[in-house]
Amino acid sequence: MALRSLATRKTLTLGLNSTRLTQSRALQTFSLPDLPYDYGALEPAISGEIMQLHHQKHHQTYITNYNKALEQLHEAIQKGDFSTVAKLQSAIKFNGGGHINHSIFWQNIAPIREEGGEPPKGSLGWAIDTNFGSLESLIQKINAEGAALQGSGWVWLGLDKELKKLVIETTANQDPLVTKGAHLVPLLGIDVWEHAYYLQYKNVRPDYLKNIWKVINWKYANGVYEKESA
Amino acid sequence: MACHLLLTDFTLPLKSPKLSHSRQQRKGRSNGSRKVSTTVAYYGLKTPPYNLDGLEPYMSKRALEVHWGVRHRGFVEDLNRQLRKSDILYGYTMDELVKTTFNNGNPLPEFNNVAEAWNHDFFWESMQPGGGDMPKLGLLGQIEKDFGSFTNFREKFVETALSLFGSGWVWLVLKRQDKRLAVVKTSNSINPIVWEGIPILNLDMWEHAYYLDYKNDKAKYVSMFMNHLVSWNAATDLLETCKLTATRICRAPYLGGFEPDICFIERYR
C-alpha cells in the first residue's frame, strides 16, 4: 500500500505544474439549484422571508464552502499532504451534507396549489400504513423525533433498501441520512435547524413541525420510493 | 450558582457577582424517615444584570424577551419539573448538577436543561451595556501572556466562533492544570466545567442567539459582541476568584495529540 501511494505521489508531483485540465480527476464545482416555486408560495406554513434566507444565504453558503473544501482537498491530494486531507474531512461532510440535504428539502415541500400537503397515494401510502399504521401515526412519530432532537439536525423518513422497510431517523448537524446506514435512502427530510423556523415560530419547534405537513410534497417522496424499491 | 430554596418559581433581581459560581452550598439531604413537606429545592430564573433593552442596539429587547424570557426560562422550568421526580439529585448546586448529570459523557436526561440554564446565566453575565473595548491590567496581562496579544486572542475567539459546526458555545476558559487561558468551543449544551476548564466568558452561537437581530450574519453578531457587549469587568472578577478558590473539576480523557477545542458528546460514546 505504501509503495503504491509513493508511486502515485511521484506521478502527481510530475504533473504539478500542469494546468487543472490535465489532472486525472476533474474538479467539479456545485451551484445553487433554483427553487421550482416562489419564496412566498409556501405561506403561511413557511414564511417567504425564511425561504429566501434559507435558500439564498444558508444553502448558498454550504455550496460555497463545499466547493472551497473540495478545491483544498484536491490540492492537498496533489501535494500528498495527508494531514490536510484528514483535516478537511469534517468540512466536506458538513458543507457537502448541507448541500445534499437542502437539495432534497426543496423538493420535499411544495405550494398547496401544486398538491403540497396532499396525502401520499400509490405505493408509499400503502407502505406507510403497513409500517406505521396510518399517516397520522407516522406524522406523530416524526414530529416527536424532530422536537426531541437537541441542537441542530434533520429528521428523516427513509427507506431501508436492504430490510425493505420505512424508517424514521434523525441526523445531527448536516450529516446526510446515509451516515445512519449505508442502505438508507432519504424520502423526506425536515430541517430542524433553528434557521429553518426561528423567525416565524421562535422557540416553538413543535408548531413548525405541525404546520410543515401542510406543504409536504408526497408526490416527490412517492417517486423516490417507487424507484428505489423497484 | 447557588441552590435556591423556593416554594414557587420567581425571578430574582440578583446582581450577584460571579463569586456565586464557585461558592458551594450543599444542602443536606434528609436521611431516615420521609417527611411530608411542601418545600422542595428548585432553581430560580435569575434576571440579567441589566434591563432587557440595556444591550440595544447590539442585542435587541425583543431578542432578550424571547431568548431569556422564553427559552432560558423554559430550561429552568423543565429542569424543575424533572427534579421533582428525583430524590437522588436533590440539593445540588448547579455546578454539581451539571457535572453529575454529564455522567462522564453519557448524559442523563436532566443534563441538557441544567447545562443550558447554567450556560445562559453565564452568558447574560458575560455581557454588559457599554461593553466591549479591552480588559485592563491583570486580565490583559494574562491574555497577552497566553495568546501573544489581545489582537491574537480576539482573532482566535472570532475564528473559533465562526468555525463551529451546528449549535454550540464559545468560551474563554482558564485551564487550571496548564495554568493558562484558552479559547474552546463546545457543541449543543456542553459546558467546559465538565472537563478541566473554568469559564471566564462565553458566547452563545446557537442560531436563536443571533437570528432575530442578525439573521444569518454570524460574523456581524460576533463582531458586535466583541466590540460592544462583552463584559471584561465580569471576566476580571471571575478570573481573580478562580485563582483564589479551589474548585472540583472532572478530568476528561482527551484523544492523544489533538487540542481539545471541539467537545462532542459523541467522543464519549
From TrEMBL, chain A:
The organism's place on the tree of life at top rank: Eukaryota
Keywords (A to Z) from UniProt: Manganese, Metal-binding, Mitochondrion, Oxidoreductase
Signal peptide: none
Record function comment: Destroys radicals which are normally produced within the cells and which are toxic to biological systems.
Organism from which the protein derives: Hibiscus syriacus (Rose of Sharon)
Protein name (record): Superoxide dismutase
GO molecular function: manganese ion binding; superoxide dismutase activity
Binding site for Mn(2+): H54, H102, D191, H195
Cofactor (UniProt): Mn(2+)
Similarity annotation: Belongs to the iron/manganese superoxide dismutase family.
Domain called Manganese/iron superoxide dismutase C-terminal: residue spans: 120-222
EC class name: oxidoreductase
Compartment(s) where it occurs, according to its Swiss-Prot or TrEMBL record: Mitochondrion matrix
TrEMBL record, chain B:
Record EC number: 1.15.1.1
Any GO CC annotation of this UniProt entry: chloroplast nucleoid
Residue stretches making up the Manganese/iron superoxide dismutase N-terminal domain: 43-127
Single GO molecular function: metal ion binding
Cofactor(s) the protein requires to work: Fe cation
Plastid recorded as keyword: yes
UniProt key word Amino-acid biosynthesis: no
Domain of life the protein comes from: Eukaryota
Alphabetical keyword list: Chloroplast, Metal-binding, Oxidoreductase, Plastid
Subcellular compartments: Plastid, Chloroplast
InterPro entries with a match to the protein in the record: Mn/Fe_SOD (IPR001189), Mn/Fe_SOD_BS (IPR019833), Mn/Fe_SOD_C (IPR019832), Mn/Fe_SOD_N (IPR019831), Mn/Fe_SOD_N_sf (IPR036324), SOD_C_sf (IPR036314)
UniProt family annotation: Belongs to the iron/manganese superoxide dismutase family.
Protein known as: superoxide dismutase
Source organism of this protein record: Hibiscus syriacus
Lineage: Eukaryota, Viridiplantae, Streptophyta, Embryophyta, Tracheophyta
